[in-house]
Amino acid sequence: MSIRKNKKTNNWEFDYKDLRGKRRIKKGFKTKAEAEKAYNKMVEDLNKGLNPVNAKITLKEAGELYLRLHASSNCKPSTYKTYCGYLENLLVPFFGELNINEISPILVKEFIKQMQDKGRQNSTINKYVKFLSAIYNFMIDNDAITRNPIARIKPLKEIKNDKIRALSTEEVQALLTKTKVVYPDFYPLLFTALFTGMRRGELIALTWDSINWVRGKITVDKNYVNGRLGTPKSSKTRYVDMSDELARVLKEWRLACPHSELNLVFPNSEGKYQSADNMIKRRFIPSLNRAGIDLIRFHDLRHTYASLLLANGAPMKYVQTQLGHASITMTMDLYTHLLPEVNDKCVNLLNNIVNQSVTKQDKYRIFGT
Questions:
Q1: How far apart are CA 241 and CA 112, in angstroms?
Q2: Which end of the chain is least crowded, N or C, by CB within 10 Å?
Q3: Which residues contact 51 (CB under 8 A, 6 or more apart)?
Q4: Does domain 169-342 have CATH number 1.25.40.10?
Q5: Does domain 60-141 have CATH number 1.20.1630?
Q6: Residue ranges of the chain whose pLDDT lies below 50
């Protein structure tokens, strides 16, 4: 920024860069003192992120501001990348170069309807709209606009568990047996995924110093996604129990594991972080095919872990803790329906109570005779 006198108008002015990085000029100050006062106020506003943005700012420009000034430093790299895709591939093509203040609730609902017509899941569309709302709230918080057209639009009703697929005990046994023979280098990672419920990024980032052999615990405090090392999805460290059989598998693997200067439990052949995509294509999918199991997502191994725990009598609270869910409600919403055999047993509980009551009454009649 600089303060100078315009020789043509004989007034004072200064130039600056706004929140979008564009150079602008403030003109028309009669004295240098007035220009300096306005200049200092502009510096203060810029430092606070409150510099007024051109009222004709488009949604695209507002979205880029949100990504650059907020999401890039406050969101995980994977989330930031997802948001960039939402803006470039969905919001900008639909809303075009519309002024951010020209977008009405009706237009947002048109966007939602278009996404539904294209077959997008309600849960996915809600994510798009939530991102759009975040852009508006960011601009409101920074005094650029005054209203959010999404504020009174209710989220679409989401259908829970529509994509969850958990393997049965027999399928788990078949998968492990076949993988151990065909892909012994992948077997330890697969075994760990099935018996800890760890996400693939958490498995790829796992280091040997995170395993406590004495206590039988694995510390989950790292996540490797899109080429970057970060924290787990919840940004909180959790401690997963390690069964005796898992400990045995990992101890054997430690002797055969490729050397890694990063101390990784499941490195690639060069000892570095392995590619999740390559692992899925070259090991996970072929393992499913060899075992004769229909294609599932790697994340479904996490669902399998939870469902097997519950089917074998583990309390829902324990499953929540192991998976690192923020609330037990989330765990119940996801996995209760995976226990048909448990539900079938519960159906007749009241019948048993009635039968016991009838039996007692019959006995009383006998004693009364």
A1: 43
A2: C
A3: 18, 19, 42, 45
A4: no
A5: no
A6: 357-358, 363-364, 367-369
